[in-house]
Amino acid sequence: MQTEVYLTGQMLLALPGIGDPRFERAAIAMCAHDAHGAVGVGTGAVIADLGLHALLAQFEIAPGDAPDAPVHFGGPVEPQRGFVLHTSDWGGQDTIDVAGRWSLSGTIDVLRAIAEGKGPSRWLVALGYAGWGAGQLEGELTRHGWFNAPADADLLFDNPAEARWERGFKRIGIDPRLLGNETGRA
Questions:
Q1: CATH number reported for the structural domain that contains residue 62 in this entry
Q2: Which of 98, 134, 175, 176 has its CA 20 to 30 A from that of 155?
Q3: Into which family does the record put it (predicted)?
Q4: In a domain, 182, yes or no
Q5: CA–CA distance, 63 with 116 (Å, rounded to integer)
Q6: 34 has which bridge partners?
Q7: Is 161 contained in some domain?
Q8: Nearest-5° angle of CA 109, CA 34, CA 173?
């Protein structure tokens, strides 16, 4: 009998030795998880040499006073598709609430609002996402690979990308330096 585990609003942290370099030290903000599958946005790595201003220029949006924040590697699925994780103080055409902890928007209106200084108070931009089919993530959680941890807006927005993975573990009392690359066998 399979136990239902719904991780919406949690942070999915890759364990050392996950076996896929795209997810090494990954910190994935889980935005949807139900019996049909799961979707999350990577927040633990940024795309080299790509900032918000260059992304806005691709859409012919003047950056205004928006900082040239890094763009995150959201995941290997649809890397040309953009997402903005943000605080719930702003909502747009397709904004969804993520378990009352943050919001997710995937249309250009959020980028325009950020550039105009009328967007959410805290946000991060990502390209791509991580996705799992029905039952796939539950299976991966039973093997060595992923660990889920509580997440909130502070973990997402008050930490640089390279620190989210470690701080996610530390919030629950785990020193990630002590994690092994292999599981034991009985």
A1: 3.40.1740.10
A2: 134
A3: Belongs to the UPF0301 (AlgH) family.
A4: no
A5: 8
A6: 37
A7: yes
A8: 90
Among 123, 125, 3, 110, smallest CA distance to 52 is for 125
pTM: 0.90
How many whole angstroms separate alpha carbon 75 and alpha carbon 42?
6
Report the Cα 136 to chain-centroid distance in Å: 18
Supply 121's token pair: 């108070």
* pLDDT tier for residue 181 given thresholds of 50, 70 and 90: low
DSSP of 123-180: EEEEEEEEEEETTHHHHHHHSTTEEEEE--HHHHHSS-HHHHHHHHHHHTT--GGG--
CA dihedral (77, 81, 84, 90) positive or negative: negative
- Residues 146, 134: Cα–Cα separation, whole Å: 17
| Mean pLDDT for the chain overall | 91
90 token code pair: 């702003």
On whether residue 49 sits in a domain, the answer given is yes
From 146, 118, 173, select the one nearest 33 (Cα to Cα).
Answer: 146
Contact assessment for residue 84 and residue 110, using Cβ atoms and an 8 Å cutoff: yes
In-domain check, residue 123 = yes
Residue numbers of the domain that contains 151:
10-177
Structural domains in the chain (count): 1
